[in-house]
Amino acid sequence: MIEINYYLLVSAVLFSIGVIGVLVRRNAIIIFMCIELMLNSINLTLVAFSSFLGNINGQIFVFIVMTVAAAEAAIGLAIIISMFRNKESLNIDEINILKW
Amino acid sequence: MIQLHEIYEVIPLVLIAFAACAILVIEAFSKKGSSAVYGFSIITVTGAIAASFLSLNKELIIFNQFLRISNASVMFSVIILAGILITIIASKNYIEKENINFGEYYSLILFSVLGMMLMVFANDLLIIFIGLELMSVCFYVLAGFLRLRQKSNESALKYFLLGAFITGFILYGIALIYGISGTTNLAELYNQKKLFTNYVFIIGFALFLIGFLFKIGVFPFHMWIPDVYDGAPTTLSGMFSTAGKIAAVGTILPIILALNITNFKLIFSVAAVATMMYGNVIALAQSNMKRLLAYSSIASAGYIFVGVAAMNEFALKGIAYYLIAYTFMQLGAFIIVSILEKKDDGSRDYKNVDIDFYKGLGKRNPLMATFMTIFLFSLAGIPPFAGFWGKYYLFYAAIQANLIWLSVIGILLSLIGVYYYLKITVYMWFHESTDLVTAGYEKEPVSRSGIFATSLAVVGTVVLGLDPNMFFRIFKMIAE
Amino acid sequence: MKFDLETVLFISLSVLSVVSAIYMITRKNPINSALFLILNFFTVSGLYLLLKAQFIAIIQVLVYMGAIMVLFIFVIMLLNLQFQKKKLESYSYKSLTSILLAIMLFGILGYTVYFGFEGKFKGMSDKALEIGTAEKLGAELFTNYSFPFELASFLLLAAIVGAIVLAKKKFE
Hints:
The structure holds three protein chains of three kinds. By secondary structure, chain A is mainly alpha-helical. Chain A has one domain (4-87): Orthogonal Bundle (Helix Hairpins). Helices cover 78% and strands 0% of the residues of chain A. In chain A, helix 2 (28-53) packs antiparallel against helix 3. Chain A is elongated. The model of chain A has no long low-confidence stretch (mean pLDDT 88). In chain B, strands 1-2 form a two-stranded antiparallel ribbon. Chain B is globular, with a radius of gyration of 21 Å. In chain B, helix 14 runs antiparallel to helix 16. The relative contact order of chain B is 0.10. By secondary structure, chain C is mainly α. Chain C has seven helices and no strands. Chain C is 74% helix and 0% strand. The interface between B and C is medium-sized, with 41 and 28 residues.
């Protein structure tokens, strides 16, 4: 029997790796993928709580999070495409008309 | 289960949701350049404001405990809708000028309003999350609506990457709160008083809070605001800075008041001071009007957090009053910038948004200069206008909560703010137009819809300033 | 900790997921990153099965890997980022601070979740198997949770409209 702590710890590790990726990488698409990794690791936390509490709330929440991830993927990639049309670059260091 | 009779309690929500979808259909069947969609969205939002008053004085928990209707939430939603109404009225002229006259513009605005109202009415963390995402997704798109302009693209990309990143933190916070309490229902959470001292809950709530501080633009999480407001279409910058922030404040404020975690009081005070200082000081050095207003909106978030730190009944009243005053003056100022902006000439940049352009505006366009002066005076907190009373109530609440140092610092920092607001006023009335401006300047006809929208904002700013209690009196009157 | 099948599966899946996540954030080519992310999602899906959330596990494979990641790979291919390789990403002292910050964050989160929930639950709930099924989830989603379910459809509609507005080449 695996205790809940271990699931949560794995999830926290994945979340932090995602955060490192967002902060360090400069390519917009990779940053976006790191955000997906973060959302996914939170889903793991929610499912773990749901199974251990015996409460279905968490799994419904995961459903909604997946919907949100899909919606954000559509929007985010559309923004990246429209950016790329004008600028031909995805490196966020070169996206600098506006100061960060 | 959704029961039919419950739908009558949320007519504004249903109206907005229906209109957002209907616009897409109307747009498909109407002729190009017709203003059917424009009129339709104005009528819907007005109807939603009127219908909101029907749900006053009802403490209801409906839709299987997902929504909660109370006087506070109705008030916040009315403030949001008022801001949206002014934005939509002013938009028509602007989007025609910028060649982005598509029906999707109005549809996305209404979808984002749906999200904001859900956040304000939510009684469950799940609904708050969906509402927040609905609002944010629409805002990301709207920020990049000027697709051919690099600035707009950049603004959308930055807003999107940072916003989605912060969503992760909010969600992690919700997951921890759910794990420790076993529920996502806010009413049930408030009943588990024992939880509030548990450190897992505090960490979870702190992560949740970080997300909202980001959306409001409080100090360590404010970096995106100037960039996004600078790059986004101007009317929409006005909307982001008013309606978007009000929705976030209206969501988080009742939760903070209900949990009443006193440890956070000091953190909020420090955040408020840092935010006011940052906004007011950096604004001194700005040469672009949109960036200047963005920094002024950061400073305003600081004033609001003076009230949040006070956490008493005066604070709630003060914040509500400041928010309505802020909606009128900030939105009005942004709309004037949008009216004076140069027509899209294919150069793919915002023209005439520099401060230098405002030199001598009083001679070139006295009406707009007068309106702008009123908004700037109100933002600076000069007496007969609404902004003064807003700040007065907030600082008074802080004094009542024994945070005298906080209100003294706040007053001093807002005096710094007076300088840059007055600078622009002096530019408008006592400077000659620069040659550069007059050489290429053709006097643009200020559209009637623009004048109407700004007049609404002026009336709001002045009337609320002359009779500061009127807003609450009207609410009370309708409630009875 | 006993070394039964569950433990072995848990350890191998979690190690694989962490390793694939680290590989994902360190690859230069976005396609490689995307493939490692898919591997990561697959291992997390395995963890869902260990948690008896069978339906979520399947949905993870179908929606996350089958739809969202395909969209990512499609866009990466569409943009054809060959010349990006020349411009190496620059890393500075800022990356070091970011990594330190993230490790601090991990310290807080890891401590909170590991010790905050130690011994809080006596094993998985008996109902875990039941609530993970498609039957139970579907029933809940269309009765008690019908309101958020409807709202999710608005979210998707807004996203569709937004994506078309931004990515369409020309408007009449």
